[in-house]
Amino acid sequence: MRISFLVSLMALPLSAVAADCTPTPGRTIGTHYDLSKATHQPGDLGKGLVMQGRVLSAAGCSPLADVRLVHWQAGEQGQYLDRLYAWRMTDEKGAYRFETEWPALRPPHIHFLVEAPGHRPLATQWIAGSRVEEARFDLVLQPVLE
After folding, report:
1. What does pLDDT average to over the chain?
2. Could you give the CA distance from residue 140 to residue 58 in angstroms, rounded to a whole number?
């Protein structure tokens, strides 16, 4: 029930969804992860899907600014391509945005790796419920307990 609800929220604009500060579940980093390929911070990676969201702390639901967000995916032909490995920094509101081509593997998905000071690293995946042109994927990190 929760998964189908979250999938339906992913296509809504950023302003339409209140932040849920439950930590984002981790998912496998996958067999195609290669951090050395994510050496650039490109603009958009293609056309077809606008991916956007925020990186938040589960503590107080506060935005995490200047956090490096690494993402990679298979392209429209179903192959992991070097040009689809990238990274970007969140802005002062913890937001990120990029445009990319539709991930063709089944199920369609994009991998994310996020590390922020004072928080546990998160490797996860956005998984599409259906083909959309815009998707929202907030990433909520769990603080490290001292």
Report:
1. 84
2. 6
